[in-house]
Amino acid sequence: MHGNSYSLKITKSQILRTPSFLDYINNGCEINLISGIDFTGSNMNPRTGLNLHNPDFNHNQYFRAISQIGGILLNFDTDKDVPMFGFGAMINEAYYESISHCFAMNGNIFRPEA
Questions:
Q1: Which of these, 24, 69, 81, 91, could form a disulfide with 29 (CB 3.0-4.6 Å)?
Q2: What is the greatest pairwise CA distance in the chain?
Q3: pTM for the whole thing?
Q4: Following CA atoms 43, 45, 50, 55 in sequence, which dihedral angle do they give, to the nearest 10 degrees?
C-alpha cells in the first residue's frame, strides 16, 4: 500500500423517503382552502379594463388563477367551504375611514366562506 491510502467503513445506512402530497392526504392530513385577493393600488386603475379585478371573467387574472388552482385543491378540502378574504381596499366608507387590510369578501367576517 502507498502512504496515501484510506479506507472507509460504513456501519449503518438508511434510505429516507420524502412523503408526497398524496401520502399526507391518504394518511389523514386535512386541507382547508383559503383565498386572498389583493385590492391594492398596484393592480392598476379598474377603469382602464386592464385591472386584475376586471369584471369580465375572461380577462380577470385572479378569477382564472383561483378557478384553476382552487378547482384542484377543492377536491381535497374536507368541508368544501372556502373562506375568501380581501385586502387593500376601503370596503364601506360609511363605517371605515381607512383602507382595510383584511376583510371578508362576502361581508361576513364571522362566516367568510363563499
A1: 24
A2: 89
A3: 0.63
A4: 90
